Amino acid sequence: MHELEFCIKSLSYPLGMLLETLQGKGGEKVVVTGKELFLPPIPFAARCYLVARALYGSLDVVDAKRLADDVSYMENFAERILNSPLGERVRPYFERADELVEIKGRLNVDWLEFERRSEGLRPLLKAVGKEKKPKELATLSVDECLLLGYISGGRKERERTYALLGRTNREFREAVKAYFKALRG
Fold first, then answer.
1. Beta strand pairing call for 36-39 and 30-32
2. HEC states along the chain?
3. Sheet of 36-39, strands arranged across
4. Of 167, 164, 157, 158, the residue nearest 132 (C-alpha)
5. Cα separation of 31 and 53, whole Å?
6. How many CB atoms lie within 10 A of CB 81?
7. In percent, how much of the chain has pLDDT > 70?
8. Burial profile 39-67: b = 16 or more Cβ within 10 angstroms, e = fewer
9. Which end of the chain has the least Cβ crowding within 10 Å, N or C?
């Protein structure tokens, strides 16, 4: 899994599923068509935020309402980045987000696929909620780890799940390191 997909799925797993279906290309700004995603050569943190906004903006009304709570994760990400040492470097991109994002096609979340992926992970939620370390956690893929975090609940539950996965799943821990390295750029 590449770092951009990791970033988007950590903010909103269903938006990250949309990213899986798009062919990435270079461009002047972040543009979402029905089949392609054009990405400008901008710092990774700005790219992640702008792509998340673009994917959310491409949703139909029903999907947008279903994922309305995920907008707070995107805005929290932006706030954390702007208040970090990266802030001054990416601030111009964040401030010009409306200019740098263009929607030319609509996307729909495949909710049946989302439920299919989630179904096998739901039995682990009870153990994770009690902060137990079932041995299955060590064998999950990075994608499954991100989905488990997403379905675990609110912000605190998600953070607790990611922390537990970081301690028990080597592949997830390495992906987190690669993601933070990309953020620092």
1. antiparallel
2. CCHHHHHHHHHCHHHHHHHHCCEEEECCCEEECCCEEEECCCCHHHHHHHHHHHHHHCECHHHHHHCCCHHHHHHHHHHHHHCCCCHHHHHHHHHCHHHHEEECCCECCCHHHHHHHHHCCHHHHHHHHCCCCCHHHHHCCHHHHHHHHHHCCCHHHHHHHHHHHHHHCHHHHHHHHHHHHHHHC
3. 23-26, 36-39, 30-32, 101-103
4. 164
5. 11
6. 21
7. 98
8. beebbbbbbbbbbbbbbbbbbeeebeeeb
9. C
- Please count the other Cβ atoms lying within 10 Å of the Cβ belonging to residue 11: 25
Which residues on neighbouring strands pair with residue 101, listed in sequence order?
A: 30
Query: For residue 88, what are its two tokens?
Result: 């001054």
Mean pLDDT, all residues of the chain = 92
Q: What is the pLDDT of residues 103-147, one digit of tens each?
A: 998 999 999 999 999 999 998 988 777 666 778 889 999 999 999
Structure tokens at 94: 């964040």
What are the structure tokens assigned to 130, written together?
């009690």
Question: pTM for this structure?
Answer: 0.92
Percent of the chain with pLDDT over 90: 82
